[in-house]
Amino acid sequence: MIEKVAENIYSIPVPLPNNPLKNLNSYLVRSGERDLLIDTGFRQQACREALFDGLKKMQVDLQHLDVFLTHMHSDHSGLAPELAARGARIYVGETDRLKLPGVGEGIDWERSDRSFAIHGFPENQLEQLTQANPAKVLAPVPYDGYLPVREGDMFRVGIYCFKALDTPGHTPGHMCLYEPDAGIIFLGDHVLFDITPNIISWGYFPNSLGAYLEALDKVDALDVTLPLPAHRTFNADLHTRIAAIQAHHRDRCTEVLRILDAEGPMMAYDLTGRMTWKIRCRSWEEFPLAQKWFAMGEALAHLEYLIALGKVERTLNGLHCHYMRVPEQNRKNVDRK
Ligand SMILES: [Zn+2]
Question: Which of 15, 18, 180, 204 gives the lowest tally of CB atoms within 10 Å of its CB?
Answer without folding.
Answer: 18
